[in-house]
Write a structure and sequence with these properties.
single chain, 156 residues, alpha+beta, Alpha-Beta Plaits, four-stranded mixed β-sheet, 4 helices, 22% strand
Length: 156
């Protein structure tokens, strides 16, 4: 009885020796087409870069951080929270809202954020950055582990 389905153990495909190599003509003329990178992708690149800067506690305002906490709880974190991007004349302007960790020097933190975001956008997206505006809305102060004092309670 013969089968209409080929036996994979008996079938082979011979590839040319130069399979997978880029020809000289292709290297000189890249494929035609348009690449579109959405503002939301640029915002995500910026958000990921900001999160790697030491001294950044969180991104966004109080309402967006609350929403972010809910999204984190359901494993759907938004890397662009607290970031907005606008493009004009092929230049990106990035607005960042963040909470700094205490006792990080705030102006130095803002400069590190600007450098990280500019490097990430120019390196990964290939777009020049006109400005990175940083707004620090709060400072996070970690509570000490042994601090069990209740506000208003008299000291013993």
């Amino acid at each position: 009885m013969s089968s209409l389905i080929p036996d994979p153990s008996n079938s082979t495909t011979a590839l040319p020796d130069n399979a997978g190599a880029i020809s000289d003509a292709a290297a000189e003329r890249p494929g035609e087409g348009v690449t579109t990178i959405r503002d939301s992708v640029i915002a995500k690149v910026a958000g990921l870069a900001v999160r790697e800067v030491p001294g950044v506690h969180s991104l966004g305002t109080v309402p967006t951080r609350a929403l972010g906490a809910i999204l984190d709880a359901i494993s759907s974190s938004d890397a662009s929270q607290g970031i907005s991007v606008s493009i004009a004349d092929d230049l990106a302007t990035v607005e960042i809202v963040l909470v700094a960790a205490y006792p990080v020097p705030l102006t130095a933190l803002a400069e590190q954020v600007r450098a990280a975001v500019t490097l990430a956008i120019e390196g990964l997206v290939g777009m020049a950055v006109a400005a990175v505006n940083v707004t620090i809305t709060d400072i996070y102060v970690a509570e000490e582990a042994g601090d069990n004092d209740v506000a208003g309670a008299p000291a013993s």
